[in-house]
C-alpha cells in the first residue's frame, strides 16, 4: 500500500485525502505534504525484516529529514538516530531520543564553549575526581530495537564530540585525528566512549559519484591496511575508548543488495580479526543506502527484507548485533513537494512548465541530475494536448529544473503539480536562494486530518538575522 494514489477520475490522493482539497486550504506557496501512516508502514517494514536478529538498531539518518515532528514519530516507533553534527545530536535529544537509556547519567558542568587545548588536562582532573560511570550498554526493548544514537562523520569537531561523549552516544571513528579528538572528548566528559571503527571496504555501490562513499579513494572511513594502527590506539586508551563494533557505509541509492552482502562478508572478516586480538565487539553496522523506486516504473527493487535477509546468516554466524542506518528508504516515499503552475512557455525547441517551486526547495535534480517523478494533481480535459516539457522554477539559474523532458498534458495556470519521493534530502537540503523562503510542511494523519508540522520561513525570519547590527 502506498500513500499517493490516483483515483479513477484522475485526482491525486494522499491516503484518503484529495491533494487538490489540501491545496485549497493551506498557504498559497509550495509546500511539502507527508503521509504519517506511510512513515509508520516504512518503519514496520524494517522492524519485520529484523525479526530474529536480537538487539538490532534502526538508526534513522537524521540528515535525510530533520523535521522535529517526524523525528518524534520515528522515535516513538522505536528508531535510533544517526547524527552527523552536534546540532543533529541536540535535535535528537529534543525529539526524545535517549542515548543514555539504561545508563547511569553522569552530570558534569559542560565545558563546551570555554574549551582551549590547555584547559583539557585540568578539566580531566576535575571530572576524574567525580568518578567515572559504569559502561552499561543501552537497554533494548523486546522488539529488538533501541533508541541508540550514533555519531558519524569525517570532520567531527571537538565540541560536538564532547557532547556525544557526555550523552553516551556511539561514535564511529573516521581517521587518526578523529580518534585523537574522541580521546580528548572522553577525558573532558569523564566518560568512556563506545566506538565503532568506520572501515572503508572499497566496494563499488554503483551509484552517482556524489553519493558513493565506500570506495578506496573516498574521504570517509579508514582503509583496512591501517586497521592495526587503530586497534593499537584503542588498546592504548583503555580509560577513554571501548571498541564495540565496526561500521561501513557504501553510498546511497543502492539498488542491488548483493553490494551490501559483499561488504558484509568483508566486514565480518575484519570483525574476526579484531576479535582475535581480544576485543569484545558486538556490533556490525552496515550503514544506510538502500535505494527507492524514483522512476515509478514498476521495476522490482529490493525491499528492507531483501536487504536484511542478504546479511542475516552472516550476522547470526558471528553472534553480532546488526545496526542499519536508513534515511531515504524510511522517509523519501512518504512525501511530495506540492507546487502550482505559474505558466507555460516555449523557447526554441523547448517547452517549459514554470512552477512556483524550484531548486531552492528541492535541489536533487539540479545537483545530481536525479529523476523524481512528476504529475498533475487533477484530471486534464479528455483531449488535452500532451507535450514534452522541462519543469522549471523561477530561480535565476539554468540549473533550476525539477524535471527534464517529461510527457505531460498542458496544464492551466494554477494547476497543482507534485514532485514525488520528496521526503528525503529535499527539505533538509532546501535553501533560501533568491530569498525563496523555505516552505511549510504538512502531514496527513491516520484519521485523515491535515496538520502543519513546520511553519514556512518568512521574510521577517530573514530580517531577524540583521537585528541590532
Ligand atoms: N549513514 C551514513 C554514514 C551516511 O553517510 C548516510 C547518507 C546514511 C547513513 C543514510 O543513507 P540513505 O539510507 O539515506 O541512503 N543528498 C544525497 C544523499 C546523501 C547521502 C549521504 N549519506 C541525495 O539527495 O541523494
UniProtKB/TrEMBL annotation:
> Needs which cofactor?
pyridoxal 5'-phosphate
Stretches assigned to the Orn/DAP/Arg decarboxylase 2 C-terminal domain:
63-423
Q: Which GO terms describe its cellular component?
A: chloroplast
> Listed GO molecular functions?
diaminopimelate decarboxylase activity
Keyword hit for Transmembrane = no
Q: Where is the active site?
A: 396 (proton donor)
Name of the top EC class for this enzyme: lyase
Q: In which pathway does it act?
A: Amino-acid biosynthesis; L-lysine biosynthesis via DAP pathway; L-lysine from DL-2,6-diaminopimelate: step 1/1
GO process annotations (BP): lysine biosynthetic process via diaminopimelate
Q: Which InterPro entries match?
A: Ala_racemase/Decarboxylase_C (IPR009006), DAP_deCOOHase_LysA (IPR002986), De-COase2_C (IPR022643), De-COase2_CS (IPR022657), De-COase2_N (IPR022644), De-COase2_pyr-phos_BS (IPR022653), Orn/DAP/Arg_de-COase (IPR000183), PLP-binding_barrel (IPR029066)
Give the EC number(s) under which this enzyme is classified.
Answer: 4.1.1.20
Question: Where are residues bearing N6-(pyridoxal phosphate)lysine located in the sequence?
Answer: 63
Keyword tags: Amino-acid biosynthesis, Decarboxylase, Lyase, Lysine biosynthesis, Pyridoxal phosphate
What reaction does this catalyse? meso-2,6-diaminopimelate + H(+) = L-lysine + CO2
> Can you give the residue ranges of the Orn/DAP/Arg decarboxylase 2 N-terminal domain?
147-332
User: What does the record give as the function of this protein?
Assistant: Specifically catalyzes the decarboxylation of meso-diaminopimelate (meso-DAP) to L-lysine.
Similarity section: Belongs to the Orn/Lys/Arg decarboxylase class-II family. LysA subfamily.
Identify this protein by name: diaminopimelate decarboxylase
